[in-house]
Amino acid sequence: MEIGLQQLGKSLLSLNTQFSVISNNIANSVTDRYKGDTLTVRSFSDYFIQEDHESNKEKLFDLSINTDFTQGELYESDASSFALDGNGFITVRYQDNTYYSRGGALNVDNEGYLVDQHGAYILGSGGMIFADTKDISISSDGNVLLDGIYADTLQVVDFEDYSRVSKTGMDYYSLKEGAVIIDTDAKIKQGYSEKSNVSMTNEYLRMMDISNKFETNQVVIQILDEMNGKTINTIAAF
Amino acid sequence: MNNAYYIAANSMLCQEKMFDVISGNVSNINTNGYKKTSVSFSDLMYSLREKESEEGYAIGNGITVNEYRKDFSYGDLKVTGNMFDLAFEKDGFLSLSDGTEQVFTRGGTFQLSKYEDGFYLANSEGYFLLDEYGDKIQVSDEDGAFVIDINGNIAFKNSDRKAKLAINSFGNPENLEVLGNNLYKAGNGLKENTQDADIILRQGSIEQSNVNISVEMTDLIQAQRLYQMNSKVLQVMDEISGIANRLRK
After folding, report:
1. Distance from CA of A134 to the nearest CA of B (A)
2. Are B192 and B168 in contact (CB under 8 A)?
């Protein structure tokens, strides 16, 4: 009986977290290059069978985030932006850390290096790219042409297992332990931007679903509470 | 705990900023030389939660304004025939000064302004046009009418005097500081183009606003829908909290 209540309480908490994930998706449905998240919940019973109950009291549910890496719609924007068509990421360096991103803007910083919309260096095969010019173009294979002359090739990579990739905000991704970098045949499209891949309809449905599940859980908790109360009162009446 | 509240509320605030930008653009649709402002968003930091799972998972915290950006794409030119109207067909900025600070403009309608001993070319804000040496450009009665070619060379009708307008071109015009009235100030990290840029100056033309009303309208509708959706999220979150409060009858 007590486990039942505890389980339901945890379920409410996980629904709450799921709701946060959904509202984050909705908020970012206008963020270019944003990839939708879903919170997956491994059920209590799976866990219970596998693990020792006592040591896992705090973890009746095992939560994890799955990011949907399908490509968002590409739309035509200005020449200073670029997007990737296909599975792949470009490599950038931001505050001495290496991150991966799905594209962005092409800017030149004070020192003349090629940077993206957040001021992170866009990395080519030879590291930072010096681009002290206005005429910057990138071919579909990632070759950077400055005033029409070849300068460097962007580091376009892909990963074997996307579950080893995590979001860091600012539409960057970082690698978790065990991530394997592989080659990709993704094409670079200059003058395009990638839309968020969030589907409003899906998010709306999931939101309604969670709201209903929350209510169901509440009803069950109330019934359990009533049963507890009855048990206590009936026994006391004897 | 109830992250969804803050995420939805924050997202609504971001959309309000979007409304501000759109209304600024739409109201300037007939302002000569106006450059459209755009706003871009990015997702906020992810916070790591480790307690609930083996490996930990990162949960998003919503949306933030990434940057406001002036779109320096070229507006259409309107031919006026007025010799005091100047506009650039493509790249280029004219240099102006009010005696203390240097500013830039994409063009506009100029006039002759009296200053001490004579008349000089100036705009309606009191900024004088500068020549290539950084001096004001005097136009006297003897000079008469003037013709400016596509490179900014000024030739006077009744005298042999010549002058050349100071024309700048920037690698990253987005870094210009906006002063309003089609005037810009050099901002941080602004880079001047050293190479020959694509400069075509047109006398007797005026650059129109580069705002596209259909783009603004679609952006507005999108922002409004998202605003609606976020208020729905707040509502549902409120219901859920209500349910949680009624757990004990």
Report:
1. 5
2. yes
Pick from A43-57, A62-76, B175-189 the range whose average pLDDT is largest: A62-76
* Other CB atoms within 10 Å distance of the CB of residue B74: 16
A chain contacts of residue B186, beta-carbon cutoff 8 Å: none
Rg, Å, chain A Cα set: 25
Interface of A with B in 115-174 (CB under 8 A): 117-118, 132-134, 147, 166-171
pLDDT digits (tens, 9 = 90+) for B92-124: 899 999 888 899 999 899 988 888 888 889 988
Residues of B in contact with A225 (CB under 8 A): 248
Contact B236 A208 (CB under 8 A): yes
Note the ipTM here.
0.80
As a whole number, the mean pLDDT across chain A is 87
Contact B197 A134 (CB under 8 A): yes
Of A71-75, B141-145, B163-167, minimum mean pLDDT range: B141-145
Instruction: Please give the angle made by the CA atoms of B13, B175 and B31, to the nearest 5 degrees.
Output: 70
When CB atoms are compared, the residue of B63, B71, B237 closest to A27 is B63
Q: Which two tokens stand for residue A157?
A: 């990579």
Chain B residues 52-71 within an 8 A CB cutoff of chain A: 52-55, 57-63, 66-67, 71
Shortest distance between the Cα of A51 and any Cα of chain B, in A, equals 12
Tens digit of pLDDT for each residue in B40-64?
899 888 888 776 566 778 888 899 9
For residue A60, give how far its alpha carbon lies from the nearest alpha carbon of chain B (Å).
8
Share of chain B above pLDDT 70, in %: 95
8 Å CB contact between B121 and B85: no
pTM, entire model: 0.84
CA A60 – CA B1 distance, rounded (Å): 18
Please identify which residue in the block is written with the tokens 């998706």.
A25
Q: Is A108 exposed, middle or buried (0-12, 13-18, 19+ CB in 10 A)?
A: buried
